[in-house]
Design goal:
Layout: H1 3-19, H2 37-50, H3 52-80, H4 83-112, H5 118-154, H6 157-183
Helix pairs in contact: 3-4, 5-6
Length: 187
């Protein structure tokens, strides 16, 4: 295995350990005295919450640096007309904001969901996906209709084939969107 592949995660662990030092508890466990598990959890979460602003700033700063690195690489690739560098930099510029928002949404959900409202969020997500599927079906049917009109007006066979493909795909998507939540027992 390459030394760079092993060294980068190790370096990240060392930097995290230096940035967020914690006290080591090396005393043996005594079951007769000491704090309960629930009080330990409360203490741990309050300690973690104390680091939340720092972690949030570092998280944002890392993604901003990655984005700026992508911008600089894109400028370099435009000047030198290097296709591979341009491909990598545009991929970086596309995925950094997407990853940033997805991680933020995941963390918000992680810290706000409890056992009582997890089922509500799951049912809302299923309802969102079903509604998105229905609107996608509507869009596919309308675009297929426009393609069919182009076929009728221009007599070009490609437009006729595309309209049929869109209508078949819309029908399949409608069936899947309507039936699969019931089949899986999610509704």
């Amino acid at each position: 295995m390459n030394i760079k592949k092993r060294g980068i995660p190790l370096l990240m662990v060392v930097v995290a350990a230096i940035a967020f030092p914690i006290q080591a508890f090396a005393s043996p466990i005594n079951f007769n005295q000491g704090s309960s598990f629930s009080s330990d959890v409360v203490n741990w979460t309050s300690n973690i919450n104390a680091y939340a602003p720092t972690v949030s700033f570092l998280f944002s700063a890392i993604f901003v640096l990655m984005f700026l690195f992508g911008v600089v690489r894109l400028g370099y690739s435009i000047i030198t007309k290097t296709g591979q560098v341009m491909k990598g930099s545009t991929g970086l510029l596309i995925w950094v904001p997407i990853a940033f928002f997805l991680i933020r949404i995941f963390l918000i959900l992680l810290f706000t969901i409890n056992s009582t409202n997890i089922t509500l969020i799951a049912s809302d997500m299923i309802r969102l996906i079903r509604t998105t599927g229905y609107f996608t079906v509507l869009g596919m049917v309308l675009i297929g209709f426009a393609m069919f009109l182009f076929f009728k007006f221009l007599k070009h066979p490609e437009f006729g084939r595309w309209s049929k493909r869109l209508w078949v795909a819309a029908g399949l998507l409608f069936v899947l969107t309507s039936i699969m939540p019931v089949v899986f027992g999610a509704v």
